[in-house]
Amino acid sequence: MKITTWNINSVRLRIDQVTRFLKEEAPDVLCLQEIKCLEDNFPSKALVAAGYEHHAVSGQAGYHGVAIVSKLPLKNVEKRGFCEKGDCRHIAASLPGGYRVHNFYVPAGGDEPDPKKNDKFAHKLDFLDEMAGWFSELGPRSKAILVGDLNVAPCENDVWSHKQLLKVVSHTPVEVERLAKVIDAHGWIDVARELIPEPEKLYTWWSYRAKDWRASNRGRRLDHIWVSPALKKAALGKGRDAYRIHDDARGWERPSDHAPVSLTFDL
């Protein structure tokens, strides 16, 4: 089973990129963030035509929004709210075999990494705290998969310069600490770093501001695939080649600033 996560930064604007990716890579499940549309405007027809009949969508006009697109049936769809904001930042669904997929879009947090001065940063920290509290309730045998744009690059080599980004939102110590608490709450396994340990650099996002993003390569690993302890063997069984950052998609015409990230499970 192959699962992909991708912050698409407007699914309607980039539906051609999505269908191209589905044709070329054929994941069983594609989790999208920042779809930026309501459920009624989600481009379902194009996705069904591409062979993906099953959709779970939590949409919001012009902002946020998440969706799960699948070749496999989706059951028990859940949309959880966080921080009483009304934002559409989470959706979950069950796949055949009892696998539960959680798709998240964590708040970016603005520019100032001070919750007293920046409400957006305070919201981000509160969101991560709520995630940790919720996942502490999951049982040890849960077959859970967590994917999405978590907007935190936790490791030193998840950013182009650890020293220069320590005070930049997405890599500050307080965010890294909060994300670690989310991981610890359920014993989540960060698949990327299990398969590809540091000091190897890993990036999934490159800013639009760079004239030549590949040449400057000032990236960050903001997009994640985690699994619960019960799925560790399945997630790691096919080795490092089973995990892939599709950075070629970052170079397509009118791209998202995030690359798709895939994992093939050994089930």
How would you portray this structure in words?
There is one protein chain. With 267 residues, the chain is an alpha+beta fold. The protein has a single domain (2-264), classed as Deoxyribonuclease I, Chain A, CATH 3.60.10.10. Helix content is 25%, strand content 23%. It contains eight helices and 14 strands. It has helices spanning 15-25, 44-49, 119-135, 162-165, 173-186, 191-195, 213-216, 232-236, and strands at residues 2-7, 29-33, 54-58, 66-70, 75-78, 90-95, 99-105, 144-149, 189-190, 205-206, 219-220, 223-227, 243-245, 261-264. It has a six-stranded mixed sheet. Helix 3 runs parallel beside helix 5 (173-186). The longest helix has 17 residues, at 119-135.
